[in-house]
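Structure first, sequence second, as always.
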């Protein structure tokens, strides 16, 4: 197998030796000087066209004689910007195209052989400033079919649902911010725990996403899919914002541009942003939830062909919580929907990051080097079962850890032409090393007294990787061929047993093959296939002697991208995913419980429609059939896995400054246990945002749960016992969803 892998990689490198003369350029935002990704560049009068990459760069293979003898007319379009037409003088191969912001129009979305589903990612930017957003985690809702749910105050990472998965806090979705990993492996509260709250939502510049295990650059956890967020490199204006709402909710934000326009012209930018949030929430016991975020970013050019980016951030958050409550206590009136059984739940978390990137451009190629460091602390008190295990003191647990993460990646990209073939080669190598101290699970009382330790130890987990891929296009065809090789090394020092468990090292090879065919400017067909994986918790790996370390996931998508009208874009896909091992985290026992093989299949449909110049509609429908393999029919349901979800709404942006949106999200009833005898209730929620935006200021209102629906945000089938109950009961335990919540805001721009 290793020889085959080496031969494949060598073959991919070998074709990089031939190239053809190209027309090259850079598409940027005129005001911020930042590159624009997925701008459409075409030569008028020919079929030659290209899309700009994430760095705003593009290449078009042009016959040499055309460059020597004729001017070439080029049209450049990008959603939200004014279309430009310009001529390239003979012999002028390097051009910089400055784009000026204009009205948003779906007419700018073009289906070409170079187009992929990035079109939908670009359109999602429309919603970033229109939807009611409580935190950066809410930005995940711009991904079609992705749901989130909070179940212990605003400080804990949300629960995520996607493609028939109850992903818990991140076991089967790969999340990154500027290439910085969000998921925490071998975390005290669950494998893949993904707390995105260190990102200030207004700083989000782009939301890139993909569903399924088909993407070479996204490794561990990337089974249901990935979401890659990128922060703004430059601010087009400084902002100070104040928000206030019900339940003692208060938020203030400042984003300050630090450099002058002349510095930006020379390729430098810098800003600093801070956020402070406080809320008591609707609960009978106030949450006293507070979070502080500070973020700074600096970009500059070094010479003509190098760009340096440095970002620093820190986040601190603490909160009280009521946790999950049993249905029987609400039904018998002993507590209300926003009541509690254990009022001493809550937690504290902090995260600080350093992220350094250097990008170098030369000879139709790019070399990117990234180094990052994260310092992370986590302390959570929960009580899921109340008095089930300890009838006297209760079952409260503490999960705690302190962690340092070191990471590095080097990525080389080269683009060239061989006759009619356009080829992009990508090679990357890197590592991520997690060093966790005092990973703890203990039995506590009122957060203060530790009665007993269940787990306590130090974890070291190293993931080294190499991947290579080719994007090959000719005519109406585009092929993506990739392979990824990951190695994991697990170490655990058990402080309770005073032992060092034997190190375990495992490899996994993940091939990918994707293809698409563009029929015309209105229709494109694609197929995606690939192998992905999610790793197990290091403690489970070592205690099981290296078994069930890196279960694989195999998936396939068959889909279409359609533009039946100039103002309508549709994406539809049928998909299938098989997992060698499903993971279920049992929090109060401190283990990741393998629950056997599973399969999921479904259909995703997303549509965007521009009703008029300033009015947009969107809808997403996601159907899934999740099942366990090897179980008797009727007892093969996967608990809490969603089967039908839908999101959508209306957004508007009028020239007079009025803008906003009204949006809905729907989740159908779903099985809460294996035989579906217990049901987790579905819900439909609507949110409203309305703003009046002028050049120097903005006022607005945001309403969550517009129709004041009673709904359960997160639900679990849990066996518990209350103080005076003689025996335990299994039933739904839930965190109530927020009732009608209104907030007003006022922002000043300068």
């Amino acid at each position: 197998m290793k020889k085959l892998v080496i031969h494949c990689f060598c073959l991919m490198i070998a074709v990089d030796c031939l190239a053809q003369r190209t027309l090259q350029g850079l598409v940027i935002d005129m005001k911020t000087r930042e590159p624009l990704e997925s701008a459409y560049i075409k030569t008028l009068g020919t079929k030659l066209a290209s899309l700009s990459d994430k760095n705003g760069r593009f290449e078009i293979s042009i016959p040499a004689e055309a460059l020597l003898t004729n001017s070439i007319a080029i049209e450049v379009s990008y959603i939200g910007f004014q279309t430009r037409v310009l001529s390239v003088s003979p012999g002028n191969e390097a051009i910089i195209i400055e784009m000026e912001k204009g009205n948003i129009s779906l007419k700018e979305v073009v289906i070409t052989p170079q187009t992929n589903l990035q079109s939908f990612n670009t359109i999602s930017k429309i919603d970033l400033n229109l939807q009611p957003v409580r935190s950066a985690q809410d930005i995940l809702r711009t991904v079609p079919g992705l749901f989130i749910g909070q179940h212990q105050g605003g400080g804990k990472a949300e629960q995520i649902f996607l493609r028939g998965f109850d992903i818990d806090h991140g076991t089967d979705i790969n999340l990154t911010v500027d290439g910085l990993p969000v998921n925490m492996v071998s975390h005290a509260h669950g494998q893949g725990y993904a707390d995105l709250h260190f990102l200030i939502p207004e700083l989000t510049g782009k939301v890139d996403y993909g569903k399924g295990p088909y993407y070479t650059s996204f490794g561990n956890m990337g089974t249901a899919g990935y979401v890659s967020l990128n922060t703004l490199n430059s601010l087009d204006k400084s902002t100070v914002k104040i928000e206030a709402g019900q339940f003692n909710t208060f938020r203030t934000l400042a984003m300050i541009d630090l450099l002058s326009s002349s510095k930006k012209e020379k390729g430098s930018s810098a800003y600093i942003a801070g956020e402070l949030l406080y809320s008591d929430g609707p609960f009978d016991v106030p949450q006293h939830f507070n979070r502080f975020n500070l973020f700074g970013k600096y970009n500059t050019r070094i010479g003509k062909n190098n760009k340096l980016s440095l970002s620093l951030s820190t986040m601190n958050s603490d909160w009280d919580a009521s946790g999950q409550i049993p249905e029987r206590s609400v039904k018998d009136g002993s507590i209300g929907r926003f009541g509690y059984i254990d009022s001493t739940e809550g937690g504290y978390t902090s995260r600080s990051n350093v992220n350094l990137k250097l990008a170098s451009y030369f000879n139709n190629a790019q070399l990117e080097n990234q180094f990052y460091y994260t310092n992370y602390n986590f302390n959570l008190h929960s009580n899921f079962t109340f008095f089930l295990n300890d009838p006297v003191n209760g079952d409260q647990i503490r999960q705690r850890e302190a962690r340092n993460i070191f990471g590095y990646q080097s990525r080389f990209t080269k683009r060239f032409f061989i006759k009619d073939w356009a080829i992009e080669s990508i090679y990357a190598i890197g590592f991520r090393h997690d060093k966790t101290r005092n990973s703890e699970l203990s039995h506590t009382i009122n957060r203060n007294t530790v009665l007993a330790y269940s787990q306590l130890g130090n974890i070291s987990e190293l993931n080294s990787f190499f991947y290579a891929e080719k994007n090959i296009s000719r005519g109406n065809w585009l092929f993506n061929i990739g392979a990824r090789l990951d190695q994991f090394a697990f170490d655990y020092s058990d402080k309770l047993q005073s032992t060092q468990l034997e190190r375990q090292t495992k490899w996994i090879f993940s091939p990918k093959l994707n293809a698409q065919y563009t029929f015309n400017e209105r229709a494109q067909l694609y197929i995606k296939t690939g192998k992905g994986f999610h790793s197990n918790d290091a403690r489970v790996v070592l205690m099981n002697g290296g078994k069930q370390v890196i279960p694989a996931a195999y998936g396939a998508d068959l889909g279409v991208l359609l533009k039946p009208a100039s103002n309508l874009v549709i994406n539809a896909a049928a998909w299938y995913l098989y997992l060698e091992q499903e993971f279920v985290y049992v929090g109060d026992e401190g283990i990741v419980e393998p629950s056997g093989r599973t399969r999921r299949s479904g259909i995703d449909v997303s549509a965007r429609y521009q009703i008029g110049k300033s009015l947009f509609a969107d809808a997403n429908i996601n159907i899934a059939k999740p099942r366990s393999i090897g179980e008797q029919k009727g007892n093969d349901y996967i608990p809490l896995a969603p089967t039908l979800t839908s999101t959508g709404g209306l957004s508007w942006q009028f020239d007079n400054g009025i803008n906003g949106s009204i949006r809905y999200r729907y989740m159908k009833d779903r099985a809460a246990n294996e035989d579906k005898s217990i049901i987790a209730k579905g819900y439909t929620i609507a949110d409203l945002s309305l703003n009046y935006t002028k050049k120097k200021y903005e006022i607005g209102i945001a309403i969550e749960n517009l129709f004041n629906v009673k709904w359960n945000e997160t639900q679990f089938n849990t066996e518990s016992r209350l103080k005076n109950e003689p025996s335990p009961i299994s039933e739904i335990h839930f965190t109530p969803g927020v009732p009608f919540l209104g907030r007003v805001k006022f922002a000043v721009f300068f």
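Margin note: Residues 2-102 form a domain with the Immunoglobulin-like fold (CATH 2.60.40.1120).
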